[in-house]
Design a protein that fits this description.
- The protein is mainly β.
- The two termini are about 15 Å apart.
- The N terminus is likely disordered.
Amino acid sequence: MLLLTMMVSASDSISCELEAAVFYIDHPNGSLKVSLPASYPGMNFAKSQVTSALLATLYDPDGHLVRDFYWYDTENTKQYDFEYEMPSAQTGFWELP
């Protein structure tokens, strides 16, 4: 179980416990900031102990890869913070699987 809090702007924020997800961001225009803080208790839904990791890719509204990121908790910190900002992002639905 991975706890993700995804913040797209000051007014839009999602917090959930999950093992897999896809986020769609309806971006009107201008600057786009994606903040993805994640924390992990060390157990999955089946109560099996696993090492925490996060893999995500940000796609623009045309489906082009914008940013790949991967985190594997080798230091047992059980948390990760990813932030990415685009000053003039394309209007449309962005995808973060």
